[in-house]
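sorry for the late reply, my laptop died twice this morning and i had to redo everyting from scratch. anyway the thing you sent over, i finally got around to it. pasting the sequence first so we're on the same page, its 112 residues, then the predicted structure underneath. double check i copied it right bc i was rushing
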Amino acid sequence: MRSSMLDVRTSPDGSVVIHPHGSVGPDDAVELRQVLVHTVRRVRPLRMIVDLADVAELDPINLGSVVAVCGLGDDHRVAVFVDNPNNHLAAQLHAAGVPSQRLRACVPVSSH
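ok and here's the structure:
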């Protein structure tokens, strides 16, 4: 799947990787939430990875969707990880309830 802000692929080990790009704002909320929920509830991979390497910021709605899908994954026996958030996003996600063991390879915020 390819859209203006989101790639979804299955890695060789069967993990589904959801890779949003840029600043993910309110206009992207429905698409991101639908992909996250569909992947956990219908695809049900052993592992889902939300790769935030190319995301500068998440608005509160999308941040909440990422946090909520971690709990939804637990309910459906899908391990959900958030990879490569910048330090600011990692701090926001952790403060919103994402356990630190789900946040992997945090990257420093780039200064322009």
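The CA atoms of residues 47 and 79 lie 5 Å apart.
thats about all i looked at so far, will dig more tmrw
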